[in-house]
Design a protein that fits this description.
Blueprint (H helix, E strand, L loop, with lengths): L4 E5 L5 H9 L3 E5 L5 H7 L5 E4 L7 H6 L5 E4 L6 H10 L2 E4 L1
Parallel strand pairs: 1-2, 1-3, 3-4, 4-5
């Protein structure tokens, strides 16, 4: 059996929006909101994906600390182009949902 992929959801999301991820046996979804930048940087190395909205600021420090991150997804329409560059440097994908 493959190792579960850990997804950190750091902003409020609807249950129906998270349901497809939570239904996957290969995905472990952890919703932890209200994180400071320092705490996010501390815990992000444990996760394979980060799902945010507008409250969480995904800085270059967060991206660099996320050694396992393969996907960073933001629900919304506005994205800082610098985040794309930081993801490219780390071979991670940045997606807007």
């Amino acid at each position: 059996m493959a190792e579960q992929q850990r997804v950190l959801v750091s902003d409020s999301m609807s249950d129906s929006g998270l349901a497809p991820l939570q239904a996957s046996p290969d995905v472990s979804v952890e919703v932890i909101t209200g994180l400071s930048q320092e705490k996010l940087i501390e815990i992000i190395p444990e996760f394979d994906a980060l799902l945010v909205r507008s409250a969480t600021k995904v800085t270059s420090e967060v991206i660099q600390a996320g050694k396992r991150l393969r996907v960073i997804a933001r629900a919304g329409v506005r994205v800082d182009s610098g985040q794309h560059l930081d993801c490219d440097d780390r071979a991670a994908t940045f997606a807007t949902l």
